[in-house]
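1st attempt posting a full record on here, be nice pls
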Amino acid sequence: MLIELTLSAGIQMTQPTTYQLQPYLQDRAIYYTAQHGLPNARVWAIAISGETLYAGTEQAVASASLNQPDRWRIVSRQPAQILIPDDAGGVYGVGERTLFHLTASGERRTLYDADTQLIGLQAAREGGLWLLSAKRLMRYENGAIREQYDAPANRQFRWFHQDTRGRLFAFAVGELEHRCYRLESGQWRALAVADNRGRYYDDVWLSATSDAMGHLWIGARSGLIIGDGEGWFLSREVYDGVATTPAAPTAELIPPTGRIQCLAFAPNGDLWAGAAEGACRLREGQWSYFWGKRWLPSNQVYAIAVDRQNRAWLATDGGVACIESVRMTLQEKAAHYERIIALRHNRNGFVTGGEWSDPNDPTSWKIEASDNDGLWTALYCAAQTFQYATTKDPAARERARKSMHALLELERLTGIPGFPARSIIRKDETGYYQSSGEWHQSPIDPNYIWKGDTSSDELDGHYFVWAVYYDRCADDAEKERIRGTVQRVTDHLMQNNWRLIDKDGKPTRWAIFNPETLNDDPLWEEERGLNSLSILSHLKVAFHITGDAKYQQAYESLIQKHHYLLNSVTQKRLPPYSINHSDDQLAFLCYSPFLLYETNPDYRRLWLMSLERSWQIERPERSPLFNFIYGALTGKPCDVEASVQTLQEWPWDLRNWQCRNSHRLDIVLDTSRSRFGDWQSVSIVPYSEREVMRWNGNPYRLDGGDPLGRGEDDGSAFLLPYWMGRYHRLIEE
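the predicted structure (as C-alpha cells):
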C-alpha cells in the first residue's frame, strides 16, 4: 500500500509504506575500578556464583553483589589467576601453585598445593576438579589427585578443556611444533585441524570452550576455530601458513580481533571473546567489537563471565566491565539524549558540544561558544520542530522556540543588517569556553560580544532551519521576525555581489557565491557545485518565506546566465578531488527545503538528477539524515532499514572516547587515506564501534577520539533524522 505525502508546495508524491519500529537491544557499558573497592591491580579472573560476582587479582579476591556491582570488597588476600563457581555461592580458585575454595560465607580453605604453577581449572564431569600445569593434567576429588595424564613427550601444556560431551582436549607446545590433542584411552592423540579443503590454520591457540552440542570453539591468534573433534570450521583462510587479507570479511565470519584468550557463552546464545585488543561478541551470525573506554577500563581482557540476564562481565587490566544489551525503543533513546542536552549542552538556546577540563571532575564541564553555533543549533532546532510537528508536544515546541530565538539573535546583535555571527556570548555568562577567532563588541547590546568570519556552513544551517521552523512551528509574530531576518540576510548577499561582508568590509573566507569566483577562479573549483546549490536553495527559501519576486528572479538569473543549476548537478566531488564529508551534510541541508518548494518540472528534473547522484554516492554510509531527506523529497525507497540500523547503533555514551579499528582482522583497508591522512576502510564499521561523529564526519575513518574522553557530543545527529523520519512517516513508533 502507498501513502500519499502532501508537501508544502502542493506537490503530491508517494512513498513506501511506513516502517514500523520495534524495540531493539541497545548496548551500553559501565565499569568498576579501585574507586569501587576493587584491588588496585589487573583483574585476572571473573566468576559468577549465585548472585555474587568474584574478581581475582594478583593481590586478592574481591566480591560484589550482582544487584550492587559498584560496591566491591576484599574477601580474601589470596592471589587468584583463575576462578570458577562452586554452585553454592562461593568459588574455587587457582593462585600460583595453590588450589583453594572460598565459600559464600567468606571461609577460605586450601585444597591442594602443587609442585609447580597451576595454569588451568575446570569442574570435572566425573566429579571434582580438573587442574592443569605445564607438565600434567590432574583430577582432584575429595582431598586427593584421582587421575593424572602427563603432557606428550617434549611438550608443555598451555590450556585444556573438557567439552559438554565429557571429552578432554589440550593444547601443547614444543620447540618447533604447536598441536591440539584429544585424550583417548589415557593417551593423547594429536588432532589434524583443517577445513574441508585441507587448509591448516594458524597454530597459536589460546583458549577454548564448548557449546551444548559438544562443538569445540577455539580462540586463536588469527581468529576462531570451531570443530567437533573430526570436522572443523576456520574463520579465516590460510595459504602456506599465512593468513589472507579477507575480500569479504563479513561473509567469512572473521572476528574483529585475534589473540582470543578467553571465550564464554551466554544463555541467549551469544559468544563472547576476550583478547589483547578488546572484546567481541558473536550474535545471530554477526560480530560486534568493544574497544576503548566507551566499553572497557582497559583493552586487555583476561576472562569473561556471563550472568543469567546475558550481561557480560569482563576482567581487564584496569578493572571489571559490564556490557549489557537493554531492550528499548528509539524514542526512549531520543529522550536519553534530550536529558544529556538539558544537563550539559544548552547554552541559552545554543546547543553544541563541550568538554571537561578534568574528565574525573563532573563540575569541570564547559560548553563551547564555537565556530559553528549557528549550524549545530539549527540542526537541534530543526529536530525539535519536527518532534513538535509529529507529537504536538509543547515541551518540544518550547525547546525549538528557545533555539530559534538564539539563532535570530546572531544576526541582530552584530549591528550589520543581514550578517549573522558565528556565535554570541553574554558577558556575565559562566560555564563556557570561547573558541579562537574574530570576536567583537556588539553595538546593539554592550552586554554581548559576537564572533565574525561567518561561513557558508552557517548560512546553510540558517536557511534550512528558517524554512523548517517557519512552515511547521512558528506563530504569526515569529513568522514576521523570521521574514525580516531572511530578507535582510538575502538582501545583504545580493547587494554585496553574493558575498557575506564582515565588520572589516571584506568578504568572509567561505561565504562566497558570486559567478566570477565560482565559475572562473580555479581555486574555487571544488566549491563550485556546493556553493551554487547553496545560494539557489537560499533564494528559493527566501522567496517562499517573504513572497518577494526579486528572489525568484535572482534565482532564475543565476541559473540561466551563470549555469548554477548545471554546476549543482555534480556538486558531490569524487577523486581525484579530496572527499569533504562536511560538504555532504551541507548539500543535503540545501536539498531539503529547496526541492519542497521548486515546482517547475524543468528545474526539478536537474535538481533531482543532482540529488539522485549525491545520494547514490552517499548510500553506503547508511546515514539516516541523508536517506530520510532523499526519501521525503522523492517518495522513493530510501534504505529505511539501514537508517534504523544506524540509529540503533548510535552510541549510548556520547563522549568522544578514543576508538581504534585500523588493526582489525575483519575489515579491508582503503588503499587511499582521507584528506587528513587518516586510515579508512572500504566499508563502514558499525557506528557503535567508531568515534562519535556528526554527519559532517568521515564514516570511513577508522581511528580517532580522545583517550581521556574529555569532549561530548550533544546528540543532535541522532535527534534530527529520527524526528524527521517520524514526521515524514518514513518510520513510526
